[in-house]
Amino acid sequence: MKEKIIALFKERFGVEPVMYASAGRINLIGEHTDYNGGFVFPGAIDKCIMAGIKENGTDKVRVYSADLDAYTEFGLNEEDKPAEQWACYVFGVCRETIKRGGTVKGFDAVFAGNVPLGAGLSSSAALESQI
Length: 131
Description:
Mean pLDDT: 86
Helix content: 25-40%
Number of strands: 5
Largest sheet: 5 strands, mixed
Number of helices: 3
Shape: globular
Strand order of the largest sheet: 1-2-5-3-4
Strand content: 25-35%
Order of helices and strands: HEEEEHEH
């Protein structure tokens, strides 16, 4: 998977990315209670999301999902929210970082994974933790 992401990134953006990986997870107890102050007991699984990311020197985020064969780009302002649901996870992390006083610069990203989508294994959380 890593080699595939690097190759796609070079093909799309012309440079080599910095690579990141995040594991999917299961909640052994406490599903949906963590954000309500309840107890949870999560565990990492042997599936992950990998991403190649690199600043691009602009104010735009350009993202390619290898698994969906889908590309989008968007700005970093609230009105720049992308139409694609999968890209809203990336946009949301950028916006929350900015709202909390962090700095987000434009970047390019290519990601792929083997965490089953929609299976309750936190594929979206694995993606969000990389951005």
